[in-house]
Amino acid sequence: MEKPNVKETLVTEGLRLMLAASYEAVGIQDVVKAAGVPKGSFYYYFSSKEAFGEAVIDEYTRHASEDYERVVGSAEGDSGAKARAYFEHLAAGYRKNNFSKGCLYGNLALEMADRSERLRARVNEGLIGWERSLGQLFRSDASVAARTNPDDLAKHLIQSWEGALIRMRAERSDRPLELFFRFSFAPQFLST
After folding, report:
1. Which of 96, 150, 151, 185 is the most exposed place for a label (fewest CB within 10 A)?
2. Is 166 left (phi over 0), alpha (psi -120 to 50) or beta?
3. Where do the domains of the chain lie?
4. pTM, entire model
């Protein structure tokens, strides 16, 4: 039987806990308890909670990128339809979780951007990567590029999405998500 990777387990459990609560609310003891490892194991792999936070963001980015590629790669239609399918996929997850949790990027940007330059920069890197992926999708569609700047459209959608998630959590409803879909995928921007 293969021995579980302790570092991966710590990061996976940290991500789960931070999505359920927040970076500040999750202590190192919470992480090691959830991972089922001694506290010394944490410090063997991570010099600080901030370094651990960076690893959690990297893991979230990896999962998000794989998820994006899988959903967009299997979606049919033009770039607008593929982008909408991806955001609908994300919305389904938030509905399933009763409008709690949210996006780790948005959560950490609100919570830690003014307190940790390292975490702020890592969150920003993740958002930029997401914008690049979505921008590339739109650049591949001549009809979008003829109407608007594909990269600006990608940034706008992600910024609008993150705002909708904040309101979704505050309202505990999908109304902000529905508004996002109604206005963000209007025909003057994207045809779906």
Report:
1. 96
2. alpha
3. 48-184
4. 0.91
Residue 154 CB coordination number (10 Å):
22
Contact 154, 128 (CB under 8 A): no
Question: Diameter of the chain by CA atoms?
Answer: 57
Percent helix, percent strand, percent coil in the chain, to nearest 5: 75, 0, 25
Backbone angles phi, psi at 26, to 5 degrees: -95, 115
pLDDT tens digit sequence for 102-154: 899 999 999 999 999 999 999 999 999 999 999 999 999 998 888 899 999 99
Q: How far apart are CA 116 and CA 114, in angstroms?
A: 6
The dihedral built from the CA positions of residue 95, 101, 107 and 108, taken in this order, carries a sign that is negative
Give the CATH fold of the 48-184 domain. Answer: Tetracycline Repressor; domain 2 (1.10.357)
Expressed in angstroms, the distance from the first to the final Cα of the chain is 48
Distance separating alpha carbons of residues 46 and 6, to the nearest angstrom: 12
